[in-house]
Design a protein that fits this description.
The longest helix is centred in the first third of the chain and has 26 residues. The chain contains 17 helices and 22 strands. It is globular. Strands 14-17-18-13-12-19-20 form a 7-stranded mixed beta sheet, sandwiched between helices. By secondary structure, the chain is of the alpha/beta class. It starts with a helix and ends with a helix.
Length: 512
């Protein structure tokens, strides 16, 4: 029996592949396109969450004691397990999240690649190294290393239920921590599959990755369970609640929140390529992408061509649950209400739908909105649906000004044939990440950090920053030999301080 087939098996001891503990309440995960039950899972209460975290503590010590090489070998076994069963996992993602099977394959591929990078680079990034001691401690050797936190809690999203949480899970594990993962209540089966796959691939430290399932109360319990750090991905309002719960125990947090990402299309851009990228960035995964493109600012000389290119491409897209569909349903049914509200506000405030603008059950038609004022919620708030606003601007500087006039600051894109101009705009874009002449590309580069500013959160996953995010810096000095005069002693001579002041004046006083 495959892991996916086990998910709907409920016994007194377990719901699906998740340990029930003493929890009696369960909930169903359903297919957003059909309503069919995908699996049944426990609603873990605070006691169950605490028990899971306590079980993870000795596993964290065993996992840390394996060292970088031991962990790298086991992370390789885990990614090998995922790679060999990629189609099984992709089918589960399709059934529970709704995205097309091919898009699920792409998501899993990215997750596996990040697993490989984290395992291969942890030692170099985090291992002990010697640093310069400086003039005042010239008789000492100075060392720096990054030590694991112990148990890390991860609260994941439903839109990319494999790739996004793996950005925290893989890097936290590679850094030497155990992980307790709480997947979204909309994709618990995917979270359970990932944990079961870990147990199968790494049986000697099976408790280093565990799953708890449930709703907001389960996540709040994880915040209060004494984990070393809590990594959260979700909306800004929920992020504030998570931070408040974590503040009760001074648990540090990593916040990967929403976005209202923009694309700038300059006069000299490859218009066809920019249009193709904008459509993918806006419509893929039904627009349920925090780093997806929701706004495009196009300079006047190429605006009409760009709109024509986009509308032509969007006209060939169709949502659905079949293999030929471009994208699937809204995973969270209530999100259709947000999309509908933004569409209504856009049109009532003077905008118009050049394409689409309709909602049919859980499926939102691919929509292109024109002439939408900047004050509209369709421009200012995260829509998280297959919609795109296109706005004519005077030049790229106006586009940048409008791009940055947002409380969000997650990602964005710039299209220009001028390398210097594009790089300058990218650097000045108020975002954690920017792609030039592409969209979303930074997420596929494991060496690059991932995260935002403002309402888009703080902290970083991926890359060296992502590894360090799940550690504490440890500084050590070792005296190599004693100095004739010890300045940090009550036995120092009275003239020592004056002599030190003269030396500092000679070395640093000439600078003005």
């Amino acid at each position: 029996m495959s892991l996916a087939e086990q998910l709907d098996t409920v016994t007194d001891a377990a719901a699906g592949t998740v340990d029930r503990h003493a929890t009696t309440e369960t909930f169903e995960s359903t297919n957003p396109a059909t309503g069919a039950v995908v699996g049944v899972f426990p609603v873990h209460d605070a006691a169950a969450v605490q028990e899971t975290v306590e079980r993870a503590r000795p596993a964290a010590q065993r996992w840390a004691d394996l060292g970088f090489d031991g962990r790298r070998q086991r992370l390789a076994a885990y990614r090998g397990y995922l790679a060999r069963r990629m189609h099984e996992l992709a089918d589960l993602v399709h059934r529970e999240n709704g995205k097309p099977h091919a898009d699920a394959i792409l998501e899993i591929t990215l997750a596996v690649d990040h697993l490989a990078w984290a395992g291969a680079h942890a030692a170099k990034t985090l291992g002990q190294r010697r640093v310069r001691a400086g003039m005042l401690a010239a008789n000492h050797a100075a060392y720096l290393e990054y030590q694991p936190l112990g148990v890390v809690g991860v609260i994941g999203p439903w839109n990319y239920p494999v790739f996004t949480p793996m950005g925290s899970i893989a890097y936290a594990l590679a850094a030497g921590n155990a992980v307790v993962f709480k997947p979204s209540e909309y994709t618990p089966a995917v979270g359970a599959w990932l944990a079961a796959a870990w147990r199968a691939a790494v049986p000697d430290v099976a408790d280093a990755l565990q799953v708890v399932t449930g709703f907001g109360e389960t996540g709040a319990a994880l915040c209060r369970a004494g984990v070393g750090k809590l990594a959260f991905t979700g909306s800004a309002p929920t992020g504030r609640k998570v931070m408040a719960a974590c503040a009760e125990t001074l648990t540090p947090v990593l916040m990967e929140l929403g976005g209202k990402d923009a694309m700038i299309v300059d006069d000299d851009a490859d218009v066809a390529a920019a249009a193709d990228a904008a459509v993918w960035g806006a419509m893929s995964n039904a627009g349920q992408t925090c780093i997806g493109i929701e706004r495009v600012y196009v300079t006047s000389p190429v605006y009409d061509r760009f709109v024509a290119e986009v509308t032509e491409r969007v006209g060939g897209l169709r949502p659905g649950s079949d293999d030929e569909a471009a994208y699937g349903p809204m995973t969270m049914a209530s999100q259709t209400d947000v999309v509908r509200r933004h569409l209504d506000d856009a049109t009532s405030s003077g905008g118009r739908a050049a394409v689409g603008g309709t909602v049919d059950g859980g499926f939102v038609a691919p929509t292109v909105l024109l002439d939408v004022p900047e004050s509209s919620s369709a421009v200012r708030e995260e829509t998280f649906g297959p919609t795109l606003t296109i706005t004519r601007v005077r030049d790229a500087e106006e586009a940048l000004e409008r791009t940055n006039a947002s409380s969000y600051g997650l990602a964005g894109a710039v299209f220009s044939r001028s390398r210097a101009r594009a790089m300058d705009l990218a650097r000045r874009m108020r975002s954690g990440m920017t792609s030039v002449n592409s969209v979303l590309t930074f997420a596929s580069v494991p060496a690059l950090p991932f995260g935002g500013v403002g309402e888009s959160g703080f902290g970083r996953i991926h890359g060296e920053d992502g590894l360090k995010e799940f550690t504490r810096a440890k500084a050590i000095t070792r005296q190599r030999y004693a100095l004739p005069v010890n300045l940090m002693s009550f036995t120092r001579p009275p003239a020592a301080a004056d002599a030190l002041a003269r030396v500092m004046g000679m070395v640093h006083g000439r600078h003005r």
